[in-house]
Amino acid sequence: MSEKEDKTAKLAELEAEMNSADFWADKNKAQATIKQIADLKAEIAGVGKYDSGDAILTILSGAGGDDAEDFSKMLLLMYCRFFDKQGWSYKVLDENENDHGGYRNITLEVSGKNVYGKMKSESGVHRLVRLSPFNSKSLRQTSFSLIEFVPKLEKSSDLPIPETDLRVELSRAGGPGGQNVNKRETAVRIIHVPTGIAVRSTSERSQAQNKDKALLILKGKLYAHNEEEKAAREKGLYVSKTTAIEWGNQIRSYVLHPYKMVKDHRTDVETAKVDEVLSGDIEQFLIQ
To answer: How far apart are CA 223 and CA 235, in angstroms?
Structure first.
């Protein structure tokens, strides 16, 4: 029996259960069943389970040094302006800022309707070409940043992971939050040993809260990675566990010199209105 046939059979079983006379005897169980039915219907119809919910955005700087870290800040501002236009809210979960105001990496939680479904196609390597403001000769510089949009899971019971597959590291959290945040080891980093995927949370006030948050982010990343692998297998392709943030892997290029153009390499959509794109006008590039 195929996976779709399994889900169809499970759906029929749950719908029969919903029609039973004592279905609402346990209200919490009934509501959980209704949600499971809705999720199964969406999966059978080909819609991702988490498309209608929130997302976690991570921006990682790659090749390009200071320029790449400045590019990460540019991308952060671009996305935040787009989020504002959508009426979505967002907050920083973890950040690693350099001395120039750029970001080595930064992670945000984005909340609103259909955030993950709308933004998941933005995941991939982004490339910037411009005259570098970080060298005295203003030479042309190419730099790269990785964008990751993954679904925000609501509870740790989703996508269970064996404890033996996890390595937890503790450290002191920097930044806002008061003296207690900096004195105690509240920051939590979790590494998924089989894949090497690592996440970090510093935004919460306690170690336990940051561990829960980091675990949910990790599970979101694993979900997105598994979906990518599944889609690749259906096309007879191979997906690596990690993506090199460098030349050859970019999904979009932002060229500021010697001409102005933003081009998506998957869809061939392009525009010379670079300033508008960097101000959050990215709707034309989103793949639904």
So the answer is: 19
Mean pLDDT for all residues in the chain: 87
Pairing of strands 103-111, 89-97: antiparallel
Buried b / exposed e over 121-156, threshold 16 CB at 10 Å, is bbbbbbbbbbebebeeeeeebbbbbbbbbbbbbeee
Amino acid at 258: P
Nearest one of 150, 148, 149, 147 to 254, comparing CA atoms: 147
pLDDT in tens, 13-41: 888 888 888 888 888 888 888 878 877 77
Domains and CATH numbers, the chain: 3-44 (no CATH), 55-152+240-285 (3.30.70.1660), 163-234 (3.30.160.20)
Tally helices (H) and strands (E) across the chain.
7, 11
In Å, how far are 107, 163, 232, 285 from 148, measured between CA atoms? 9, 25, 18, 16
